[in-house]
Amino acid sequence: MAIAIVVPRLGWSMEEGTFGEWLKKVGDFVHKGDMLFVLEGDKALQEIESFDEGILYIPADAPKPGDAVTVGQLLAYLLAEREPPPEPAEPTTVSKTPQPSSTRPRPSPLHELGATAISTGSRVVASPRARRTALALGIDWSKIQGSGSDGRIRERDVLATAQRLPTSGSGEDPVEIPGTLQPGSKIRRTIAGRMLAGVQQTAAVTLMSKVNASELVAIRQKFKSSRGGGAPSYNDLLVKLVASILPKCPELNACWMNHSVYTYDVINVAIAVETDNGLVAPVLRNVSALSLAEIATQSQRLVEEARSGNLCEQQLQGGTFTITNLGMFDVDHFTPIINLPQTAILGIGRIAAEPVIAGDKVVPGKTLALSLTFDHRVIDGAPAARWLQRLVKMIETGDFDAG
Description:
Layout (H helix, E strand, L loop, with lengths): L2 E4 L9 E7 L6 E2 L4 E6 L4 E5 L4 E4 L10 E3 L3 E6 L13 E2 L24 E2 L2 E2 L3 H10 L17 H10 L21 H15 L3 E9 L1 H14 L6 H12 L8 E4 L2 E4 L5 E3 L1 E3 L2 E3 L2 E2 L7 H17 L12 E5 L18 E15 L2 E15 L5 H17 L6
Parallel strand pairs: 1-9, 15-19, 19-20
Antiparallel strand pairs: 1-8, 2-4, 2-7, 3-6, 4-5, 6-8, 10-11, 12-21, 13-14, 15-18, 16-17, 20-21
Helix pairs in contact: 1-2, 1-3, 5-6, 5-7
């Protein structure tokens, strides 16, 4: 029997993606383990592996490169030798196209996008792309009249509604302001949805502190003198420090799930990276087992792959704590937004030349601003503050194993 090839779910929040290209041609024999096609998820491209084998048959109406596709959508078939292609209505066995799996329970999705608005019976007729665009633009899509078949709401309906919305004024005849509507890109819509969820679905609290970073600066200068261009960055040093003391406060390396606190057994630190396409957060895995040199090497590689657009979906998944750094923009304190389903995110500000207290004297020094945002459902303010205080002391003394 023909085996259907369908769009897999690359991440637990994924509802749709963009079809990239086929890596095999029609008529090719596909072996188990062969890379079959390229799929773009929320923020990355990924080659999809075949878990079955057979001769590839791609229907004429299959998605083309660049087409939007939804999870579970039929792409093609794998056929046995001399087996004819199935009729469109013929039931088939669904391929074991890779789906994310885990022996642990997973947190609920960020948004329940399947809620009915305009529907026929129980079938939702607003497309996933329309719902995500409406979310990014702050529009109630349940009140939009769809232009598709059976009243289906499409993305163009949402954009048309946004263009008609007044931008200022009040009363029955609001004043409209001329302007240009720039539809959000796929990654921009993903970022918008996740940031909104990070605000709406957590009890977020931010603690801020300023630390004497003179010792941290001295440590990095020592590395630069001994290693030259291969010296770790300040971000690498802080990743190492954070991973070394997260076990002292395991609630910060956890998530809120099913009205319970789920504590992770490993420390996977996501590092926020600015790219031309938007913000991504690739993950350094099992950081507590890495030396400082390994952290520096891996983080540099992740940053380069992020900015060149070569990250795969797995490199963006599995983070348990996030670090974001705006120091290069001369920012001191800021309020980072929690990267769901994680509990905490640490914001790093600039290292500034300022006077500091040394004993009973005021001397020139270097200060560093820290901002810890955490989910108050998982951890209370006092233990979070104690953890931040411990981090401050470690930065001030440089008392950590550099590896």
